[in-house]
Amino acid sequence: MQKFNGSMVADNVMALITQLSKYKAELEGKLYHEIGRFEKSTGICAECGQHHVLTLNDRHFICVACGAHKNRDLSAAKSIANTGELDLIAAGIVARVNPTSQRKAANKMKVFELSKFAVGSEKKEAA
Ligand SMILES: [Zn+2]
After folding, report:
1. Separation of 117 CA from ligand 1 center, angstroms?
2. Closest CA to 44 of 77, 74, 76, 82
3. CA of 111 to the centre of ligand 1 (A)
4. What digits encode the pLDDT tens for the residues 7-34?
5. Which terminal residue of the chain, N or C, has fewer Cβ atoms less than 10 Å from its own Cβ?
6. In angstroms, what is the span from residue 52 Cα to ligand 1's centroid?
7. What per-residue confidence (pLDDT) applies to 52?
8. How much of the chain exceeds pLDDT 70, in percent?
9. Would you state the pLDDT for residue 99?
10. 75 alpha carbon to ligand 1 midpoint, in Å?
11. Cβ neighbours of residue 113 under 8 Å, at least 6 residues apart?
12. What residue ranges do the domains of the chain occupy?
């Protein structure tokens, strides 16, 4: 009789989720990037980046630095997206741009994939 292994099931589900995410990203011409397995995401305030220590029962938290009321999972998801964006910015794959028309609203910052704008082609012409 096969022994039921909870963590193995969770690993298989995670593999399926990543496969589907990759497939969907490629289908829509978007970037797929995985952040480090041990990158901290839980308990980070999505507004100011303050870290908090949460127990499994803490579903919401109020940021000690900025006072924002945060949903634990939503905040973790935003933190993961932010970490991924910073990875891609560091690798020179994307850039964060604040369109001139929306300069007053910092949250309207948009992310562009540099390869789609042929960045660096001006340098080649000048050389
Ligand atoms: Zn905060």
Report:
1. 34
2. 76
3. 22
4. 556 778 988 999 999 999 999 998 999 9
5. N
6. 10
7. 95
8. 79
9. 74
10. 10
11. 31, 93, 94
12. 1-32, 39-90, 92-121
